[in-house]
Amino acid sequence: VEGPPDKQRVIIGNRFVMENYSFPDGETSTYRQATDLNTTELVGVRLYRKPHFTELVLHELELRQTIHHPNIVTILGSYEDESYYYIVGHFHAGGTSRLFTSSHQSY
Asked: What's the pLDDT at 34?
């Protein structure tokens, strides 16, 4: 990864370019869109700040490698630098799951 996420352009794993575009932050992570340099498709990047969420990231990666469901985003790769963990998956325009659930509450 080249540079921290607050820069205008971040390259992740020599494959994904993340522009300075962000969805609302979740409690534990931030979700941003990026572009896959190999396919030009949009991807989603979940960023976790180190070292606070190391155990959470490892648990998410372990779970997501075993779950295969059409409604769960597939992970394309995971990367890290000095400050962040990056989990890259297929892009979902709805933002974070927290944002989705708060806007779809039933009474």
From this structure: 92
